[in-house]
Design a protein that fits this description.
Blueprint lengths: L5 E2 L5 E4 L2 E4 H23 L6 H24 L2 H4 L18 H19 L3 H19 L1 H6 L13 E3 L9 E3 L2 H23 L5 H20 L6 E2 L2 E2 H23 L17 H16 L20 H10 L13 H32 L1
Parallel strand pairs: 1-4
Antiparallel strand pairs: 2-3, 4-5, 6-7
Length: 369
C-alpha cells in the first residue's frame, strides 16, 4: 500500500448543462492569460504601449495552437491515420496533443504578422513575452495531469503519479510525474530569464533565446524519462533530438547576436513616447529648460549668471578672486609678489619726483628769459 502519491483526477471534464469545461483547455487558457499579463508589464517597462502585447497575441495564440497541433499530428500520425483510427480525431485538440516546438515556431509567425502591422521589431516583442511563455507552459502542463498522459517510468517515490485509466494502452500504476517536473522547470526558466534580463540588459531577442535554451536543457532529460510511444532515432526519442538541435541554435544566436548587436533596443514601439501624459511632458520640458539655462553651450556652468539678490554666483566670485595677484607667491628669482609691488611703487614715486624737478627747471628758465 502506497502511503503517499499524487492522485489523478477521476475525470478531465465537467459539464455545466450542455457546456463542457475541460481541464486541458482550462489550463491552456490560464497560461495564455498569464503570458499576456506578464508580457504586457514587461513591454510597458521597455517603453511600449499598454495593450500592444494582447493585440499581437490575437495573432500569435491561434497560430501557436495550430502549429502545436500540426507538430503533434505529424510526429504521431499513426494515432490518427493508421488502420482502425479515425482521422477526424486529429481535430479534437481538447483531448490533448500539442507539440511545443510547433507552437513556438508557428506562434512566432503569427507574432511577426502582428508586429509588422504595428512597425514593432519582433525580437523586442519576443524578449518581453519570453518569461510569460514559460509560465504559460507551466500551467499548460497540468492539462496532461487531467488527461492522465505524458508520465514517466514506474517509481515508488512519495510524489509518484497514480495512473488509474486503462484507456489507449495505459497500464494503471505509479509513475514519475513528468508533467510536474516540466511545470516546475518552466517556472525556474521564467525566473532565470527575468533575472538575466535585469542583470545583463538582454536585447535583440537574446532573452527569448535564453528561454529557448533553458527550456530545451530541461526538456531533454524530462523527455528521456517518458514511456509513452514515440519515434526513436539512434536510441533517442525524436523530441530529444529536437531539444538538442534547438538548444544549439539558441546558444549560437545568443553568442552571434551579442557580438553583432550588443545592448538593448532604445525604442521598441514607434510613437509610444508621445503617449505620455501632458503633465509629465510639461514637467520634463520645464526641467530641460531649467537645466539648459544653467549651462553654456559647452555644458559648463554660466559664471556670469546672477542670483535673485543681484550677486554673482560662486563661479563668478571665484573668477573675480583669480584676477587679484597672489602676494605670497614667489617669482622665478626668489622674490615674492609683495616685494615686486613695493619696488614698482618706489619706481613710480621716483619717476614722479623726477618729472616735478624737470617742470620746476623749465619754469625757472622761462622766468630768466
Amino acid at each position: 500500500m502506497e502511503l503517499a502519491y499524487i492522485p489523478s483526477p477521476s475525470r478531465g471534464v465537467v459539464h455545466l448543462g450542455p457546456l463542457p469545461l475541460r481541464g486541458y483547455a482550462f489550463c491552456i487558457i490560464i497560461g495564455v492569460f498569464v503570458a499576456v499579463w506578464l508580457g504586457n508589464k514587461r513591454w510597458v517597462a521597455r517603453g511600449g504601449r499598454a495593450g500592444t502585447v494582447a493585440d499581437i497575441a490575437v495573432w500569435a495564440v491561434p497560430f501557436g495552437l495550430l502549429g502545436g497541433r500540426l507538430y503533434h499530428v505529424i510526429t504521431d500520425y499513426e494515432l490518427y491515420f493508421s488502420e482502425g483510427r479515425n482521422w477526424v480525431d486529429a481535430f479534437k485538440i481538447w483531448e490533448g496533443g500539442l507539440g511545443i516546438w510547433g507552437a513556438i515556431a508557428l506562434g512566432a509567425v503569427g507574432a511577426w504578422i502582428g508586429c509588422r502591422r504595428r512597425g514593432i521589431p519582433l525580437p523586442a516583442y519576443a524578449d518581453a513575452v519570453a518569461p510569460g511563455i514559460a509560465l504559460a507552459q507551466a500551467f499548460g502542463r497540468w492539462g496532461n495531469w487531467f488527461n492522465q498522459e505524458l508520465y514517466g517510468r514506474e517509481t515508488d517515490l512519495p510524489w509518484a503519479l497514480h495512473i488509474t485509466s486503462a484507456a489507449d494502452g495505459r497500464v494503471p500504476g505509479y509513475y514519475h510525474p513528468t508533467f510536474l517536473y516540466e511545470s516546475l522547470w518552466c517556472i525556474g526558466v521564467a525566473l532565470l530569464v527575468i533575472w538575466a534580463d535585469r542583470r545583463f540588459q538582454l536585447g535583440h531577442g537574446r532573452a527569448f533565446a535564453l528561454y529557448v535554451a533553458a527550456y530545451c536543457a530541461g526538456r531533454f532529460w524530462i523527455e528521456y524519462m517518458r514511456v509513452d510511444d514515440a519515434h526513436h532515432i539512434l536510441g533517442l526519442r525524436l523530441n530529444n533530438w529536437t531539444a538538442l538541435f534547438v538548444f544549439l541554435l539558441a546558444v549560437a544566436y545568443i553568442v552571434i547576436s551579442a557580438r553583432k548587436r550588443p545592448g538593448r533596443e532604445e525604442i521598441v514601439e514607434p510613437g509610444a513616447a508621445d503617449d505620455a501624459p501632458a503633465g509629465e511632458a510639461a514637467g520634463t520640458t520645464k526641467k530641460t529648460a531649467d537645466t539648459e539655462a544653467t549651462t553654456d553651450v559647452e555644458g559648463e556652468p554660466d559664471a556670469t549668471k546672477k542670483t535673485d539678490g543681484g550677486k554673482k554666483t560662486g563661479a563668478a566670485k571665484k573668477t573675480g578672486a583669480e584676477e587679484k595677484p597672489d602676494l605670497g607667491k614667489k617669482t622665478d628669482l626668489g622674490r615674492t609678489d609683495a616685494d615686486v609691488e613695493k619696488e614698482t611703487e618706489a619706481a613710480r614715486d621716483a619717476d614722479g619726483a623726477s618729472a616735478g624737478e624737470k617742470k620746476d627747471e623749465a619754469e625757472s628758465a622761462s622766468g630768466k628769459s
